[in-house]
Amino acid sequence: MIDKFSVPQKELDKQKEYAEMVRTVLSSRFTQAPKAFVHTYGCQGNVSDGERLKGMLAEMGYEFTDTPENADLVLYNTCAIREHAEDRVFGNVGALKQYKKSNPDLIIALCGCMTQQKSVAEILKNSYPFVDLVFGTHVSYKLPEFIYKCLCTGKRVIDVTDSDGNIVEGIPVRRDGTFKAWIPIMYGCNNFCSYCIVPYVRGRERSRDFDAVMNEVKEVVSQGYKEITLLGQNVNSYNKDLPEEKRFPALLRAINEIEGDFIIRFMTSHPRDCTFELLDAMAECDKVAKHLHLPFQSGNDRVLKEMNRHYDRKRYLELIEYAYKKMPELSVTSDVIVGFPGESYEEFKDTLSLIERVKYTSLFTFIFSPRPGTKAYDMPDPVSRKEKGVWFKELTDLQERIAGERTALMKERTYRVLVEGEAKGEGMLSGRTEGNVIIEFPGEKSLIGTFTDVKVTNPRTWIVYGEKV
Ligand code: SAH
Ligand code: SF4
Ligand code: F3S
Asked: Is 0.85 topped by the overall pTM?
C-alpha cells in the first residue's frame, strides 16, 4: 500500500547505491572488515530502529563489536524521554573524544530521538566538534548516504530535517536476538500527553501495512523466533481509520493463526484506545501472552486531565475489571509518573489506591522530568524534587509488597517459560513466564531459546525460583 508516509522506491534505490559505494570505499581502505559499535538507548521501538541501522551497516560491509575502543564507527541511537537519559548520552559522547585521538579516522555518529530536537543538534554542532554525523529520526534510512559523505568528504554531516514522519519498508534487519523478535507495527504518536517529548521527535501516528507486518512475522516465525513483540507507542490505534478487519484486534487474531510454537506480546497500549474487543481478542488467542501493559500514569482525574490522557480512573478500572474477568490469570503492568507539575500529595494518594486496586505484577515508575517544548515544561511545579523522592519511595514500597503477594501465589504452580539465558549461580537459567515474571531454575544451557515447564518452589518478590518438570 502506498500512502502519504511511504518513502518512494526511487529514494530507497538511491540508498542501496550509496551502500554499494560505501562498501567499495571501505574495501579499498581496510584490509579486514571495519568494525561498528552501535548502542541504542530508550524504548523497544528504538531498539528495533537500531536493528535496522545495523542491518544497513552490515549491508555497507561493517562488522560489529561490543566495545567502542577498537571501533571504526561508533553510533549512538539516543532517547530523549527524560533528562537523565539525555545526560547519560552527553556523558558517553564526551568520553569518545579520547578514542578519536588514537584513531583520527573513527566516525562518531549520533541519531535517534535526542538528536531530532533542534536544541540538542545545536549543542552537538557547537560544543562537540569531534562528532562527525548527527541525524534525526525521520532520515535514518539515509544512513548509507551519510556514511558515504563522511568517508569521502571528511566533513561533518548534520541532518535533523523535521517531518510528519515516514514509513520505510525493505530496510535489512540485523536482529539482536535469536529467539525474541521486535516487530514495529506503527510509528509516531498523536496523543501529545502534556509531559511527553515523543510526538515532537517521532512525528505523526502512522501504521505499517497489514500485509507487510504479517510477512515480517511469518518470516521470523519461519526462522525459529519464539517470542514476537509488536511495537508502537499506541498499538491499540493501529490502522484505526481502516475497517475493523485491518485494526489491532484483527492483526492479533491473524498472527495467532500463523502456524508455529511462539508467543505474541505487544506494547504499548494506551487506555484511551483500549477496547473490550481488544481484550476479547487477547483472551481468545492462545498464542497471545496473558500480559497487558496498560500505563495509567496517575490515579487522579484532575492530574490525568492535565496530562491530556483522555481517560479517567473509572474508565481505566472498567477496562481492568473486564480484562481480569476474561483472563483471571492476567498479569498487568504499567507506567506511572510521580510528581507531575501541580500534583498534590492527596492526588498522589489516588495513584497509590489505584495500584492497590489493580494489583500490578510490576511497575515502571518515573519521577516527572520536564522536557523542553512540552506543555508541562511550563507548568508551575511547586513540589520539590526531594519531596517527590519521598512519594516515589512510598509508591515503590507499596508495589514491592503487592509484587511479593502476587509471586507468593505462584508457589507450587507450574508455568511455561521461555528460557532467555544463564542466570547468576552455577548451572542456573533465567526465563520469563507469559505474565512477564522472571523465573530462575537449574538446567542445561541447551534449553536457552526454548519453552520449558518450570514449577515454582521458592517465590521471591522480583524473581521466583523453581525447578524444571
Ligand atoms: N506511549 C506509551 C509510553 C511511552 S514513554 C504510553 O503512552 O503509554 C514511556 C513512559 O515514560 C511513559 O508511559 C511515562 O510514564 C514515562 N514518561 C514519559 N515522559 C515522561 C516525563 N517527561 N517525565 C517522566 N516520565 C515520563
Ligand atoms: Fe508519549 Fe502519550 Fe504518546 Fe505515550 S501516548 S508516546 S506518553 S504522548
Ligand atoms: Fe526514548 Fe524515543 Fe523511545 S524518546 S522512549 S527512544 S520513542
From this structure: yes
